[in-house]
Amino acid sequence: MKKETVRFPKVELHLHLDGSVPPETMWRLAEKEHVPLPAETPEAFWEWLKTTSDCRSVNEYLERFELPLQLLQSRENLAIATHDLILLLAGENYAYAEIRFAPQLHVRKGLTQRDAVEAVLEGRAEALKSCPGLKIGILLCAMSIGPETLNMAENLETVRLTKEMLGRGVVGCDLAGAEGIVPLHRFAPVFDLARELDVPFTCHAGDSQGPDTVLDALNFGTRRIGHGHHLYDAPELWDRVRSSGVTLEICPTSNIQCKTQPSYREHPAKKLLDAGIRVTINTDNSALAAVTLEEEYAHCLEEMSFTPEDLVRMNRYAAESSFLPEKEKAELLKTLEEY
Ligand SMILES: [Zn+2]
Question: What is the 29 CA–ligand 1 centroid distance (Å)?
């Protein structure tokens, strides 16, 4: 099948740092930390990432994060991973990306959440010196790892840190992790605090779980939803999503690999866009999923019935829905328009 190439400057809103560390960087960090890898050479490691990217479920998918997480427990390594990922995005003609990570997953060897955020911001600043024209926002993820009471204190700390770091490269927060361990609405205190502190936020919902979780996210007052494709199963919610301008961060390959949609062809993203819902296209975890945004676009055109005009429109939606400060968002939109 012929691959169409998209040449406009790309915007991505949903990219996890731990799942997107470039494979060469993971290889280097593993050697440095003496962490065994399941391959003999960097090339074989890349092949391993590709062949293991298909999972039986979201939970199996989440287990694959253990390897990069083992490598990202020091300030230095967090800065290197962030730096290398940003250079990779610059080489793929990105205009803007929001990279998200959960500070509380990087404290195993004594870092605090604040240390982890500062390290990522250092890596970001260093990388941006050599990438004029590229903008990068950082989102801090609260985590769903069990009953909501298990890490509510850590999650609230993440939201407070987001507030403190706004304007220094951090642009908002998120709730990530396993859906469905407890009902999503029990995480309301995380979002109550985000609203109280006027922190922009998105929320993973409607991926492995049904549209009831999309409703929970809407009730939190979210402006964006991570995944959210199961909104398709509840047309009675579409009006509310349309009128509130909530944007869906759709990650097609991730959905197929986690079996939350049966195939690219059956994925409802195009139908949601045609229903007037603001859909954007993202990679979720470019390394663990072994996919680039360019490849996601190829799936969109070849298997998901999107047109090239749809891609331009969704790229603009992504820029409009970014959590960049208004002035920088206007610059980004101008860059896209000039193109
Ligand atoms: Zn995600």
Answer: 23
CA of 110 to the centre of ligand 1 (A): 26
Domains of the chain: 10-338 (3.20.20.140)
Query: What is the C-alpha separation between 231 and 207, in angstroms, rounded?
Result: 9
Distance 338 CA to ligand 1 centre (A): 30
pLDDT of res. 339: 82
**What is the whole-number distance in angstroms between the Cα of residue 182 and the centre of ligand 1?**
18
Residues with CB under 5 A from ligand 1 (ion): 284
Q: Which two tokens stand for residue 24?
A: 């060469």
Going by C-alpha positions, the residue among 286, 291, 315, 317 that lies closest to residue 16 is 286
In our burial notation (b when 16+ CB lie closer than 10 A, e otherwise), range 192-228 reads ebbeeeebbbbbbbbbbbbbbbbbbbbebebebbbbb
What pTM was computed for the model?
A: 0.96
Q: Check whether 98 has a pLDDT greater than 50.
A: yes
Distance (Å) from CA 204 to ligand 1 centroid: 7
Which sign, positive or negative, has the C-alpha torsion 61, 67, 71, 73? positive
